[in-house]
Structures are given as C-alpha cells and as structure tokens.
Design goal:
Structural class: mainly alpha
Number of strands: 0
Number of domains: 2
Number of helices: 10
Shape: elongated
Strand content: under 5%
Helix content: 55-70%
Length: 207
C-alpha cells in the first residue's frame, strides 16, 4: 500500500513539473506542498482545507493531482472568471504535457447549472409569467428582450448565457431555466430541441 502511494506521489511530482514547464513557470515550494496534500486527500478520501497566498500557483496544485487521480473530479470555482481561466487557458496548456506523462487521454468540460441556459418555453410564452410580462413592458428592458429573442432564433444557437448578447439580468432571469421543474416542463414539449438539452454531451465534469 505504501509503495503504491509513493508511486502515486512520484507521478504527481512528475506531472506537476511537466505542467509547470508547459506554462513556462518555475517550481514553487508552496505549490509542491499543496499538490502533495491534495493528492493525499484524493487517495485517502479525506477532507482538506488549504489557505495559500497569491502567487502560490494554486490552480496547478489542485488540477494536476486531480488529473493524475484518474477518476472524475468536479472543480467548483468561486467566479466565472476563474472558471474561464481554467478551461480556456490553464487546462489546454497543460493537457498535452500531462498526457505524455500519464500515457492516457485527458478530457475536461464546463458543467453549468441550468439557469445559465435559455428556456424556450418561457421565452415563447407557453409558460405564463405575469411578473415577466410586466417587466418586459419597460422600454429599455423590452429592447433587451427583443435582442435576446432574435439571438435565440439564430440557427445552431447554444442558449448558453456566456454566448448570449449582453442583456439586463432581469431580462435573462425572465427567460432562463429557473430550476429542475422548469427544465422538465420545458423538455416535455420541446423534446431535444430544448437549449440545455442540446448541451448535455458537453456538460461533463473534468476527468
């Protein structure tokens, strides 16, 4: 058991070095310690709370052990900005290097809550929302509503809020999926044309 754990820790070290080199960085003691602690928590299945200052290299310190672990891992971020950093910058840079070290393919994707997608049923008026109707009577918001509707009619549109035109948050809320029950009501009449349903194959947590 100890031997297997030592091999795992050695692999984490090799993978971390490869990832650091891939992004053009330098090894940091705090980053190494954090990566080892995360790897231990994943292997031994215990909770871990880490406090690390700016410049520690926290992203790689938890991403690398998670990828070495080899099972599905869900990474929750406090902000969408960090989410985009991980998926659009960090992971694409380190993926090829880690695949060489680990000798297997690595996959990752964004997993979003349904509230990040348009609800076509609400937008098209099949689901009555008196507050939403009143909201859309306000001039500026009505313009945003028209922009959002025009975008939703675009062929192949994702329905993803990140891809949508910038509209008032109240307009988005009035037209987005508001919970599991709304998702069920939406999918029933619209079948797999429902916007979040189209995204399902891509909405898998990182592995």
């Amino acid at each position: 058991m100890a031997s297997a754990k030592n091999q795992q820790m050695k692999l984490v070290g090799e993978a971390l070095n490869a990832a650091i080199e891939a992004i053009g960085g330098e090894p940091r003691e705090g980053q190494i310690q954090m990566a080892e602690a995360v790897a231990n928590s994943l292997t031994d299945r215990h909770h871990l709370l880490v406090q690390a200052g700016t410049g520690t290299g926290k992203s790689l310190a938890y991403l690398v052990p998670a990828l070495v672990h080899g099972k599905k891992v869900l990474v929750a971020t406090a902000t969408l900005a960090l989410q985009r950093q991980l998926v659009e910058r960090d992971l694409p840079k380190i993926q090829p290097a880690l695949e060489k070290v680990l000798k297997r393919d690595l996959t990752f994707a964004v997993y979003k809550g349904v509230g990040n997608y348009l609800c076509l049923q609400k937008m098209n008026g099949a689901e009555q929302d008196p507050d939403g109707d009143m909201l859309m009577e306000i001039g500026a918001l009505e313009k945003d509503q028209k922009r959002l509707k025009a975008w939703a009619k675009t062929p192949g549109v994702s329905g993803d809020r990140d891809d949508a035109p910038d509209v008032d948050r109240r307009v988005w809320f009035a037209n987005s999926v508001s919970g599991p029950s709304a998702l069920v009501r939406m999918i029933a009449p619209l079948d797999r044309n429902a916007l979040p349903w189209r995204q399902r194959p891509r909405r898998r947590p990182p592995m």
